[in-house]
Amino acid sequence: MAQVAISKVAKAFGTVKVLHEVSVDIADGQFVVLVGPSGCGKSTLLRMVAGLETVSGGTIAIGDRVVNHLPPAKRDIAMVFQNYALYPHKTVEQNMAFALKLRKTDPAVVAERVKRAADILDLNPYLKRYPRQLSGGQRQRVAMGRAIVRNPQVFLFDEPLSNLDAKLRVQMRTEIKELHQRLKTTTIYVTHDQIEAMTMADKIVVMRDGRIEQVGAPLELFDRPANLFVAGFIGSPS
Ligand code: ADP
Ligand code: MG
């Protein structure tokens, strides 16, 4: 586990500034949700933590290392995306093992980590299946399994539930929270869904147009919104 310190991080694409000196501190083991309307810069910020986008200004530290110039593979993070990105021609087991095999991990360790992830996520009955033979929820669990087997310091989620139907979304919210309670891995979770933010976060970061409007615990934001935008955004169901 590790703390994550995002300090005055800015991002411009060409001449267009999409993030303006954003700072967020995430404590070791905390579950932080970045929430805000589409286009406000949530994914860009998360991708910079992952190392998938360069930083235009400021610093990002994971644990006690500034990671601005480290490639994604050296950052000790694992990211779960909205569209799963599972390998269609690999089984569930192979999908989970693949990233470890790429890193030349000892086969005994690979087997042990895959087994542990399958136990945690209830995937044991599906290990020999291919992604097309799974439901949406099961695929999302495999995507989480791939993240878990890497034993990362930090989990990054980018709208992982937005392709699921409403009922499954509620169930997966609970599963992701239970996973966090079990593993206590520092987590940054991006969503545009206020209910997801309110029910999952230890701490919510409300963003708008590349800036942070307010940071606080769910009830703090609900009871004492800093402005009308936060009040409207947190107060109204999606
Ligand atoms: P969110 O995830 O909150 O919906 P994004 O981080 O995806 O927002 O995007 C923030 C802004 O940056 C948007 O205006 C988007 O169009 C712009 N943007 C994102 N990626 C790129 C890119 N590769 N090139 C140019 N503009 C981009
Ligand atoms: Mg996004």
TrEMBL record:
Q: What keywords would UniProt list here?
A: ATP-binding, Nucleotide-binding, Transport
Q: Where is the ABC transporter domain?
A: 4-234
> Could you state a single Gene Ontology molecular function term?
ATP binding
- Family membership: Belongs to the ABC transporter superfamily.
> What is this protein called in UniProt?
Sn-glycerol-3-phosphate ABC transporter ATP-binding protein UgpC
Instruction: Please give the organism.
Output: Mesorhizobium japonicum R7A
| Gene, per the UniProt record | ugpC
